Protein backbone atom coordinates (compact mmCIF):
# COMPACT_ATOMS: atom_id res chain seq x y z
CA UNK A 1 0.00 0.00 0.00
CA UNK A 2 1.39 3.35 -1.03
CA UNK A 3 1.16 6.39 1.21
CA UNK A 4 0.76 9.88 -0.13
CA UNK A 5 3.75 12.18 0.26
CA UNK A 6 2.01 14.24 2.94
CA UNK A 7 1.24 11.08 4.92
CA UNK A 8 4.83 9.87 4.64
CA UNK A 9 5.99 13.25 5.88
CA UNK A 10 3.62 13.14 8.84
CA UNK A 11 5.36 9.93 9.90
CA UNK A 12 8.78 11.50 9.28
CA UNK A 13 7.80 14.37 11.54
CA UNK A 14 6.62 11.98 14.28
CA UNK A 15 9.99 10.23 14.12
CA UNK A 16 12.00 13.44 14.24
CA UNK A 17 13.09 13.60 10.60
CA UNK A 18 13.07 17.28 9.54
CA UNK A 19 10.55 18.07 6.78
CA UNK A 20 9.54 21.41 5.22
CA UNK A 21 6.64 23.28 6.83
CA UNK A 22 3.48 22.79 4.82
CA UNK A 23 -0.12 21.71 4.53
CA UNK A 24 -2.47 19.84 2.24
CA UNK A 25 -5.27 21.62 0.41
CA UNK A 26 -7.66 21.35 -2.51
CA UNK A 27 -8.72 24.97 -2.52
CA UNK A 28 -7.41 28.52 -2.73
CA UNK A 29 -4.90 30.04 -0.32
CA UNK A 30 -5.42 33.31 1.55
CA UNK A 31 -1.78 34.06 2.10
CA UNK A 32 1.69 32.70 1.43
CA UNK A 33 4.78 33.39 3.47
CA UNK A 34 7.60 33.54 1.00
CA UNK A 35 8.32 31.24 -1.92
CA UNK A 36 6.42 27.94 -1.94
CA UNK A 37 6.49 24.58 -3.67
CA UNK A 38 3.16 23.11 -4.78
CA UNK A 39 3.13 19.35 -5.13
CA UNK A 40 0.44 17.14 -6.63
CA UNK A 41 -0.46 14.36 -4.19
CA UNK A 42 -0.50 11.41 -6.54
CA UNK A 43 0.91 7.95 -6.03
CA UNK A 44 2.87 7.70 -9.27
CA UNK A 45 6.64 8.18 -9.39
CA UNK A 46 8.51 10.80 -11.41
CA UNK A 47 5.97 13.47 -10.55
CA UNK A 48 8.38 16.39 -10.93
CA UNK A 49 9.27 15.47 -14.51
CA UNK A 50 5.59 14.95 -15.33
CA UNK A 51 4.79 18.51 -14.21
CA UNK A 52 3.45 17.66 -10.77
CA UNK A 53 5.84 19.85 -8.76
CA UNK A 54 5.50 23.61 -9.30
CA UNK A 55 7.06 26.68 -7.71
CA UNK A 56 5.40 30.00 -6.83
CA UNK A 57 6.64 33.26 -5.35
CA UNK A 58 3.40 35.15 -4.80
CA UNK A 59 -0.11 34.39 -3.56
CA UNK A 60 -1.56 35.00 -7.02
CA UNK A 61 0.93 32.67 -8.67
CA UNK A 62 0.42 30.01 -6.00
CA UNK A 63 -3.34 29.98 -6.49
CA UNK A 64 -2.96 29.81 -10.24
CA UNK A 65 -0.63 26.83 -9.97
CA UNK A 66 -2.80 25.05 -7.43
CA UNK A 67 -5.70 25.37 -9.82
CA UNK A 68 -3.55 24.18 -12.71
CA UNK A 69 -2.56 21.04 -10.78
CA UNK A 70 -6.09 20.31 -9.58
CA UNK A 71 -7.29 20.32 -13.17
CA UNK A 72 -4.61 17.93 -14.25
CA UNK A 73 -3.83 14.23 -14.27
CA UNK A 74 -0.28 13.12 -13.62
CA UNK A 75 0.48 9.92 -15.55
CA UNK A 76 -3.22 9.11 -15.61
CA UNK A 77 -3.88 9.83 -11.93
CA UNK A 78 -6.25 12.69 -11.22
CA UNK A 79 -4.90 15.28 -8.78
CA UNK A 80 -7.30 15.75 -5.87
CA UNK A 81 -5.03 17.41 -3.34
CA UNK A 82 -1.84 19.40 -3.36
CA UNK A 83 0.82 19.81 -0.71
CA UNK A 84 1.90 23.42 -0.27
CA UNK A 85 5.32 23.74 1.35
CA UNK A 86 7.87 26.40 2.13
CA UNK A 87 10.57 26.40 -0.52
CA UNK A 88 13.78 25.02 0.93
CA UNK A 89 17.09 26.65 -0.15
CA UNK A 90 18.75 23.57 -1.62
CA UNK A 91 22.54 23.27 -1.66
CA UNK A 92 22.87 19.53 -2.26
CA UNK A 93 20.50 16.65 -2.96
CA UNK A 94 21.19 13.18 -1.56
CA UNK A 95 19.32 9.92 -1.96
CA UNK A 96 18.19 7.58 0.80
CA UNK A 97 16.23 4.39 0.22
CA UNK A 98 15.41 1.40 2.41
CA UNK A 99 14.05 -1.76 0.81
CA UNK A 100 13.96 -5.50 1.39
CA UNK A 101 16.57 -7.37 -0.60
CA UNK A 102 14.75 -10.58 -1.46
CA UNK A 103 17.92 -12.41 -2.44
CA UNK A 104 19.82 -11.61 0.75
CA UNK A 105 16.58 -11.71 2.76
CA UNK A 106 17.62 -8.58 4.59
CA UNK A 107 16.67 -4.93 4.74
CA UNK A 108 18.99 -2.95 2.49
CA UNK A 109 19.82 0.71 3.05
CA UNK A 110 20.91 2.63 -0.03
CA UNK A 111 22.51 6.04 0.13
CA UNK A 112 23.92 8.25 -2.57
CA UNK A 113 25.32 11.74 -2.83
CA UNK A 114 23.74 11.84 -6.32
CA UNK A 115 20.18 12.50 -5.20
CA UNK A 116 17.27 14.36 -6.71
CA UNK A 117 17.52 12.43 -9.96
CA UNK A 118 16.35 8.99 -10.96
CA UNK A 119 18.32 6.59 -8.75
CA UNK A 120 18.15 3.81 -11.39
CA UNK A 121 20.06 6.17 -13.66
CA UNK A 122 22.78 6.60 -11.01
CA UNK A 123 22.90 2.83 -10.53
CA UNK A 124 23.56 2.39 -14.25
CA UNK A 125 26.06 5.15 -14.80
CA UNK A 126 27.83 5.55 -11.46
CA UNK A 127 27.14 2.47 -9.37
CA UNK A 128 30.12 3.37 -7.18
CA UNK A 129 28.21 6.46 -6.06
CA UNK A 130 25.68 4.30 -4.19
CA UNK A 131 26.58 2.82 -0.82
CA UNK A 132 24.72 -0.30 0.26
CA UNK A 133 24.31 -1.47 3.79
CA UNK A 134 22.60 -4.72 4.71
CA UNK A 135 20.98 -4.75 8.11
CA UNK A 136 20.93 -7.95 10.11
CA UNK A 137 17.20 -8.24 10.82
CA UNK A 138 17.95 -10.07 14.10
CA UNK A 139 19.97 -7.16 15.40
CA UNK A 140 19.16 -3.63 16.27
CA UNK A 141 20.32 -1.01 13.79
CA UNK A 142 22.21 1.56 15.84
CA UNK A 143 23.23 5.15 15.04
CA UNK A 144 26.94 4.30 14.86
CA UNK A 145 26.15 1.81 12.07
CA UNK A 146 24.54 4.59 10.07
CA UNK A 147 27.63 6.77 10.67
CA UNK A 148 29.95 3.95 9.55
CA UNK A 149 27.99 3.57 6.39
CA UNK A 150 28.72 7.19 5.43
CA UNK A 151 32.40 7.14 6.35
CA UNK A 152 34.04 6.65 2.99
CA UNK A 153 31.78 8.41 0.53
CA UNK A 154 33.19 11.88 0.91
CA UNK A 155 30.47 13.60 2.93
CA UNK A 156 31.81 16.71 4.69
CA UNK A 157 32.31 15.65 8.31
CA UNK A 158 29.79 18.10 9.85
CA UNK A 159 27.08 16.49 7.70
CA UNK A 160 27.77 12.90 8.72
CA UNK A 161 26.02 12.86 12.12
CA UNK A 162 22.99 14.75 10.76
CA UNK A 163 22.53 12.48 7.75
CA UNK A 164 23.24 9.38 9.85
CA UNK A 165 20.55 10.49 12.28
CA UNK A 166 18.01 10.63 9.42
CA UNK A 167 19.05 7.16 8.22
CA UNK A 168 18.69 5.78 11.76
CA UNK A 169 15.21 7.27 12.13
CA UNK A 170 14.12 6.21 8.63
CA UNK A 171 15.13 2.65 9.44
CA UNK A 172 13.06 2.76 12.62
CA UNK A 173 10.06 3.80 10.51
CA UNK A 174 10.81 0.97 8.09
CA UNK A 175 10.77 -1.60 10.89
CA UNK A 176 8.09 -0.24 13.18
CA UNK A 177 5.58 0.40 10.40
CA UNK A 178 6.31 -2.80 8.45
CA UNK A 179 7.27 -0.80 5.38
CA UNK A 180 8.48 -2.36 2.16
CA UNK A 181 9.97 0.94 1.03
CA UNK A 182 11.06 4.14 2.75
CA UNK A 183 12.60 6.60 0.33
CA UNK A 184 13.78 10.18 0.70
CA UNK A 185 14.78 11.63 -2.65
CA UNK A 186 16.03 14.24 -2.35
CA UNK A 187 17.35 14.39 1.18
CA UNK A 188 18.49 17.97 1.04
CA UNK A 189 21.41 19.86 2.60
CA UNK A 190 20.33 23.48 2.77
CA UNK A 191 22.47 26.55 2.17
CA UNK A 192 22.68 26.99 5.94
CA UNK A 193 23.69 23.37 6.59
CA UNK A 194 20.40 21.80 7.71
CA UNK A 195 19.28 18.36 6.57
CA UNK A 196 15.66 18.19 5.31
CA UNK A 197 13.55 15.47 3.71
CA UNK A 198 12.13 17.36 0.74
CA UNK A 199 10.31 14.32 -0.65
CA UNK A 200 8.99 11.17 1.01
CA UNK A 201 7.81 7.80 -0.27
CA UNK A 202 6.56 5.08 2.08
CA UNK A 203 5.04 1.76 1.00
CA UNK A 204 3.54 -0.49 3.66
CA UNK A 205 3.38 -4.27 3.62
CA UNK A 206 -0.19 -5.40 3.00
CA UNK A 207 0.48 -8.66 4.79
CA UNK A 208 1.11 -6.67 7.97
CA UNK A 209 -2.34 -5.04 8.06
CA UNK A 210 -3.33 -7.10 11.09
CA UNK A 211 -0.48 -5.71 13.18
CA UNK A 212 -1.31 -2.04 12.70
CA UNK A 213 -4.00 0.52 12.62
CA UNK A 214 -3.50 1.92 9.13
CA UNK A 215 -6.90 3.63 9.09
CA UNK A 216 -5.32 7.10 9.10
CA UNK A 217 -4.08 6.50 5.54
CA UNK A 218 -6.15 7.35 2.48
CA UNK A 219 -5.40 4.23 0.49
CA UNK A 220 -6.31 2.01 3.41
CA UNK A 221 -9.66 3.69 3.84
CA UNK A 222 -10.39 3.27 0.13
CA UNK A 223 -9.48 -0.40 0.26
CA UNK A 224 -12.31 -2.82 -0.38
CA UNK A 225 -12.57 -5.84 1.89
CA UNK A 226 -13.35 -8.51 -0.69
CA UNK A 227 -14.22 -12.04 0.46
CA UNK A 228 -12.22 -13.55 -2.43
CA UNK A 229 -8.85 -13.17 -4.14
CA UNK A 230 -9.11 -10.63 -6.94
CA UNK A 231 -6.45 -9.31 -9.27
CA UNK A 232 -7.39 -6.89 -11.99
CA UNK A 233 -5.89 -7.53 -15.44
CA UNK A 234 -5.96 -5.57 -18.68
CA UNK A 235 -8.15 -7.94 -20.78
CA UNK A 236 -11.93 -8.02 -21.28
CA UNK A 237 -12.99 -11.51 -20.17
CA UNK A 238 -13.73 -11.97 -16.49
CA UNK A 239 -12.33 -15.23 -15.14
CA UNK A 240 -13.81 -16.79 -12.01
CA UNK A 241 -12.68 -20.11 -10.58
CA UNK A 242 -12.47 -21.91 -7.28
CA UNK A 243 -8.91 -22.48 -6.16
CA UNK A 244 -5.89 -20.54 -7.40
CA UNK A 245 -4.66 -23.39 -9.63
CA UNK A 246 -7.96 -23.84 -11.42
CA UNK A 247 -8.37 -20.08 -11.84
CA UNK A 248 -4.90 -19.79 -13.38
CA UNK A 249 -5.66 -22.74 -15.67
CA UNK A 250 -8.88 -20.97 -16.66
CA UNK A 251 -6.90 -17.87 -17.61
CA UNK A 252 -4.60 -20.04 -19.71
CA UNK A 253 -7.45 -21.66 -21.57
CA UNK A 254 -9.01 -18.28 -22.32
CA UNK A 255 -5.66 -17.15 -23.72
CA UNK A 256 -5.37 -20.41 -25.67
CA UNK A 257 -8.60 -19.65 -27.51
CA UNK A 258 -7.54 -16.09 -28.27
CA UNK A 259 -9.13 -14.20 -25.38
CA UNK A 260 -7.63 -11.92 -22.71
CA UNK A 261 -8.49 -12.24 -19.01
CA UNK A 262 -9.85 -9.10 -17.31
CA UNK A 263 -9.09 -10.56 -13.91
CA UNK A 264 -8.05 -13.44 -11.77
CA UNK A 265 -10.85 -14.13 -9.32
CA UNK A 266 -10.62 -17.10 -6.99
CA UNK A 267 -13.76 -17.59 -4.90
CA UNK A 268 -11.89 -20.10 -2.73
CA UNK A 269 -13.27 -23.29 -1.24
CA UNK A 270 -16.86 -23.63 -0.02
CA UNK A 271 -17.99 -20.22 -1.33
CA UNK A 272 -21.58 -19.35 -0.49
CA UNK A 273 -24.22 -18.02 -2.88
CA UNK A 274 -23.52 -14.55 -1.47
CA UNK A 275 -19.78 -14.72 -2.21
CA UNK A 276 -20.42 -15.96 -5.76
CA UNK A 277 -22.87 -13.11 -6.24
CA UNK A 278 -20.38 -10.50 -5.02
CA UNK A 279 -17.65 -12.05 -7.17
CA UNK A 280 -19.67 -11.83 -10.37
CA UNK A 281 -20.85 -8.33 -9.49
CA UNK A 282 -17.25 -7.27 -8.91
CA UNK A 283 -16.27 -8.54 -12.36
CA UNK A 284 -19.24 -6.79 -14.02
CA UNK A 285 -18.45 -3.48 -12.32
CA UNK A 286 -16.01 -2.88 -15.12
CA UNK A 287 -17.65 -1.64 -18.27
CA UNK A 288 -14.93 -3.03 -20.50
CA UNK A 289 -15.69 -6.62 -19.44
CA UNK A 290 -17.43 -8.26 -22.40
CA UNK A 291 -17.89 -11.80 -21.11
CA UNK A 292 -17.35 -13.98 -18.06
CA UNK A 293 -15.85 -17.43 -17.81
CA UNK A 294 -16.81 -19.43 -14.71
CA UNK A 295 -14.95 -22.63 -13.96
CA UNK A 296 -15.92 -24.64 -10.87
CA UNK A 297 -14.67 -27.98 -9.66
CA UNK A 298 -16.85 -28.49 -6.65
CA UNK A 299 -15.59 -30.40 -3.64
CA UNK A 300 -16.49 -28.49 -0.52
CA UNK A 301 -17.86 -25.88 -2.89
CA UNK A 302 -21.42 -26.73 -3.98
CA UNK A 303 -22.59 -26.29 -7.55
CA UNK A 304 -26.10 -25.32 -6.44
CA UNK A 305 -24.75 -22.46 -4.28
CA UNK A 306 -22.66 -21.24 -7.21
CA UNK A 307 -25.64 -21.50 -9.57
CA UNK A 308 -27.90 -19.52 -7.22
CA UNK A 309 -25.28 -16.80 -6.91
CA UNK A 310 -24.99 -16.53 -10.69
CA UNK A 311 -28.77 -16.41 -11.16
CA UNK A 312 -29.09 -13.60 -8.60
CA UNK A 313 -26.67 -11.44 -10.57
CA UNK A 314 -28.34 -12.23 -13.91
CA UNK A 315 -31.53 -10.62 -12.66
CA UNK A 316 -29.64 -7.30 -12.76
CA UNK A 317 -27.44 -8.10 -15.76
CA UNK A 318 -29.64 -10.16 -18.09
CA UNK A 319 -27.49 -9.56 -21.17
CA UNK A 320 -24.14 -10.61 -19.81
CA UNK A 321 -22.29 -13.17 -21.95
CA UNK A 322 -21.49 -16.06 -19.72
CA UNK A 323 -19.93 -19.46 -20.09
CA UNK A 324 -19.99 -21.95 -17.24
CA UNK A 325 -18.16 -25.16 -16.64
CA UNK A 326 -19.16 -26.81 -13.43
CA UNK A 327 -18.66 -30.28 -11.96
CA UNK A 328 -18.63 -32.07 -8.63
CA UNK A 329 -20.73 -31.70 -5.51
CA UNK A 330 -24.42 -31.11 -6.25
CA UNK A 331 -23.72 -30.81 -9.95
CA UNK A 332 -27.19 -31.99 -11.03
CA UNK A 333 -28.91 -29.42 -8.86
CA UNK A 334 -26.58 -26.67 -10.04
CA UNK A 335 -27.13 -27.50 -13.71
CA UNK A 336 -30.89 -27.59 -13.19
CA UNK A 337 -30.93 -24.12 -11.56
CA UNK A 338 -28.85 -22.64 -14.36
CA UNK A 339 -30.85 -24.38 -17.07
CA UNK A 340 -34.11 -23.04 -15.66
CA UNK A 341 -32.58 -19.61 -16.11
CA UNK A 342 -31.44 -20.22 -19.64
CA UNK A 343 -27.77 -20.92 -18.97
CA UNK A 344 -26.19 -24.11 -20.22
CA UNK A 345 -23.25 -25.75 -18.51
CA UNK A 346 -20.36 -27.13 -20.54
CA UNK A 347 -18.69 -30.40 -19.69
CA UNK A 348 -15.09 -29.33 -20.17
CA UNK A 349 -13.24 -26.08 -19.72
CA UNK A 350 -12.06 -26.24 -23.33
CA UNK A 351 -15.64 -26.33 -24.59
CA UNK A 352 -16.68 -23.59 -22.22
CA UNK A 353 -13.80 -21.33 -23.24
CA UNK A 354 -14.38 -22.01 -26.94
CA UNK A 355 -18.07 -21.26 -26.62
CA UNK A 356 -17.47 -17.96 -24.87
CA UNK A 357 -14.87 -16.76 -27.35
CA UNK A 358 -17.17 -17.70 -30.27
CA UNK A 359 -20.08 -15.89 -28.65
CA UNK A 360 -17.95 -12.75 -28.27
CA UNK A 361 -16.49 -12.95 -31.75
CA UNK A 362 -19.93 -13.37 -33.32
CA UNK A 363 -21.28 -10.51 -31.26
CA UNK A 364 -24.15 -12.73 -30.20
P1 LIG B 1 9.19 13.72 -7.43
O1 LIG B 1 9.45 14.15 -8.82
O2 LIG B 1 7.85 13.08 -7.28
O3 LIG B 1 10.29 12.85 -6.89
O4 LIG B 1 9.10 15.03 -6.56
P2 LIG B 1 10.12 15.73 -5.52
O5 LIG B 1 9.38 16.07 -4.31
O6 LIG B 1 11.35 14.90 -5.33
O7 LIG B 1 10.47 17.07 -6.26
C1 LIG B 1 11.15 17.08 -7.50
C2 LIG B 1 12.31 18.04 -7.47
O8 LIG B 1 11.86 19.34 -7.22
C3 LIG B 1 13.32 17.76 -6.37
O9 LIG B 1 14.28 16.79 -6.74
C4 LIG B 1 13.94 19.12 -6.17
O10 LIG B 1 15.01 19.30 -7.07
C5 LIG B 1 12.83 20.08 -6.49
N1 LIG B 1 12.26 20.59 -5.25
C6 LIG B 1 11.23 20.10 -4.54
N2 LIG B 1 11.01 20.84 -3.43
C7 LIG B 1 11.95 21.81 -3.44
C8 LIG B 1 12.27 22.90 -2.56
O11 LIG B 1 11.65 23.12 -1.51
N3 LIG B 1 13.28 23.73 -2.91
C9 LIG B 1 13.99 23.53 -4.06
N4 LIG B 1 14.98 24.36 -4.33
N5 LIG B 1 13.74 22.51 -4.89
C10 LIG B 1 12.73 21.67 -4.60
MN1 LIG C 1 11.46 12.73 -5.30
From TrEMBL:
Q: Which InterPro entries match?
A: ATP-grasp, ATP-grasp_succ-CoA_synth-type, ATP_grasp_subdomain_1, Succ-CoA_synthase_bsu_CS, SUCC_ACL_C, Succ_CoA_ligase-like_bsu, Succinyl-CoA_synth-like
- Spell out the molecular function terms from Gene Ontology: ATP binding; magnesium ion binding; succinate-CoA ligase (ADP-forming) activity
UniProt keyword annotations, A-Z: ATP-binding, Ligase, Magnesium, Metal-binding, Nucleotide-binding, Tricarboxylic acid cycle
Instruction: List the Pfam families.
Output: ATP-grasp_2, Ligase_CoA
User: Which cofactors does this protein require?
Assistant: Mg(2+)
Q: In which pathway does it act?
A: Carbohydrate metabolism; tricarboxylic acid cycle; succinate from succinyl-CoA (ligase route): step 1/1
Binding sites annotated in the UniProt record for substrate: 242, 299-301
> What is this enzyme's EC?
6.2.1.5
According to the record, cofactor stoichiometry and binding are noted as:
Binds 1 Mg(2+) ion per subunit.
Q: Where does ATP bind?
A: 39, 46-48, 85, 88, 93
What's its catalytic activity?
Answer: GTP + succinate + CoA = succinyl-CoA + GDP + phosphate; succinate + ATP + CoA = succinyl-CoA + ADP + phosphate
Q: Which residues of this UniProt protein bind Mg(2+)? A: 185, 199
Which stretch is the leader sequence? none
What Gene Ontology cellular-component terms does the record carry? succinate-CoA ligase complex
Q: Which domain of life is it from?
A: Archaea
Concerning SUPFAM superfamilies, the annotation shows: Glutathione synthetase ATP-binding domain-like (SSF56059), Succinyl-CoA synthetase domains (SSF52210)
Record GO biological process: succinyl-CoA metabolic process; tricarboxylic acid cycle
Q: Which residues form the ATP-grasp domain?
A: 9-215
Q: How does it assemble?
A: Heterotetramer of two alpha and two beta subunits.
UniProt function note: Succinyl-CoA synthetase functions in the citric acid cycle (TCA), coupling the hydrolysis of succinyl-CoA to the synthesis of either ATP or GTP and thus represents the only step of substrate-level phosphorylation in the TCA. The beta subunit provides nucleotide specificity of the enzyme and binds the substrate succinate, while the binding sites for coenzyme A and phosphate are found in the alpha subunit.
What's this protein's family per the entry? Belongs to the succinate/malate CoA ligase beta subunit family.
The UniProt entry, under NCBIfam families, shows: PRK00696.1, sucCoAbeta
Protein name per UniProt: Succinate--CoA ligase [ADP-forming] subunit beta
Q: Which organism is it from?
A: Methanothermococcus okinawensis
Amino acid sequence: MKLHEYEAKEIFREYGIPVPRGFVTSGKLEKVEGPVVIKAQVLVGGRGKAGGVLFADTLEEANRKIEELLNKSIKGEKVEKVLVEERVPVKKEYYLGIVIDRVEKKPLILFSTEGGVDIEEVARRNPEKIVKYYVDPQEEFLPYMARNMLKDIGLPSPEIPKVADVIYRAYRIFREWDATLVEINPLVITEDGRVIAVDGVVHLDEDAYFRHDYSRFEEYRKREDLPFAYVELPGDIGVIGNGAGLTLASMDIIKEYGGNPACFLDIGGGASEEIVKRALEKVLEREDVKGVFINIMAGITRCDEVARGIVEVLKKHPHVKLSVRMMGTREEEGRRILKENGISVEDSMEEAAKKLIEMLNNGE
